[in-house]
Amino acid sequence: MAADTRAKAVTLDLRRRLLSSSCRLFFPEDPVKIIRGQGQYLYDEQGREYLDCINNVAHVGHCHPTVVQAAHEQNLVLNTNSRYLHDNIVDYAQRLSETLPEQLSVFYFLNSGSEANDLALRLARQYTGHQDVVVLDHAYHGHLSSLIDISPYKFRNLGGQKEWVHVAPLPDTYRGPYREDHPNPAEAYANEVKHVISSAQQKGRKIAAFFAESLPSVSGQIIPPAGYFSQVAEHIRRAGGLFVADEIQVGFGRIGKHFWAFQLEGEDFVPDIVTMGKSIGNGHPVACMATTQAVSRAFEATGVEYFNTFGGNPVSCAVGLAVLDVLKTEQLQAHATNVGSFLLEHLTQQKAKHPIIGDVRGTGLFIGVDLIKDETLRTPATEEAEYLVSRLKENYILLSIDGPGRNILKFKPPMCFSVDNAQHVVAKLDDILTDMEEKVRSCETLRIKHPPGSTGPGCRAAAGNRPSRSRTG
Ligand SMILES: Cc1ncc(COP(=O)(O)O)c(C=O)c1O
């Protein structure tokens, strides 16, 4: 492949000419050209190894040989649509059903998380006969028009909120209206949803669904207070709507304690629809929507065929099955618990040392580090977060930031991330934060370095620099 030998600057130039600038790059001031991946590592065109703390899609590790082999073997034999009988699709549905509560027993296969959420919206509307949706503030549920409409993370930067969309506050006990000192934040935040529903009903609106990530990740690695989702589900169902759990970033054992993040609410809590994507195919485009017989039957009753050219094809299902096999044989869910606890503990130790760290939260390999400018107001340390991530990248560690204030470091690495990796990242983070504190003491401006001859923006002060908006994944 010629692309491997092309100089990075040439690739960048071609990309700028041929692709829309809406397709953003990580580190636009000095993008990384990645040509190979293995496990939790990525390699650039010069063979330099980067530790990947971002990629929750390469769930069981970049280019995992079992997954690659499964795709290859099935590709050699057959790939076609799901209108023919084939064992892979039924085996896969069967295996997924073993991970879910028994009520969620009907499966629809698709190619992306967005498709799964869009179909969930269609099913919810068909089943309830209602049109409206309640979502959490700052949420992102996909890039289709229907999903931009229910993603405050995006629509706040676009045309605004549609009349059929109702936004409830994020159940953030660190920065939201009800915090760690509130006697019952779960009830308080769930009552906010109840209030949003009744305001909508007073205007004659009818609720079809509540959509939420089981652990809001795009909004900054939020851990809702226990009991919140169960109470929200009661309010939504009383209004005739369905509860849709978006597990696209957080499912498949990432959170360690459970296979699905909604299971943190307890065994009795069962969403009406669960959507899956990203990690499900380890990089291959696979997605799934699981629901109950009753919801599915209402959709079937329209008599309109559900056809998706690629969804559930034999190769995608072989890949999905291989991912489940690897999770089991390599015990990656338990591994996520062990490594995640280690990382959480060591990051919490850093919080005691560096005042910029306001909060460390997470479960398994889903961890957020909330950076603040001051302890009282908890003002997001946006520019400092951007600077820190850029310095980590100079040290060959890839980490991302998210949240409404773009100040939350997001750890969501491939599940093979090791204790050694965790130790290494924490040590580098400590070094950089110590150096940043030294710079601030000597009144030096934090500046993101740009390589000589960089075609990115000139060497600019990190402080006061507006970060790019709306980056997901
Ligand atoms: C929570 C969540 N839901 C849905 C999606 C959409 O998935 P996809 O990009 O595969 O369409 C994303 C993607 O970032 C996501 O983070």
TrEMBL record:
One of its GO terms (cellular component) is mitochondrion. Pfam families: Aminotran_3. The keyword Lyase applies. The keyword Lyase applies. Keywords: Lyase, Pyridoxal phosphate. It comes from the Eukaryota. Residues 447-473 are annotated as: Disordered. Its cofactor is pyridoxal 5'-phosphate. One of its GO terms (molecular function) is pyridoxal phosphate binding. Homotetramer. Belongs to the class-III pyridoxal-phosphate-dependent aminotransferase family. This is 5-phosphohydroxy-L-lysine phospholyase.
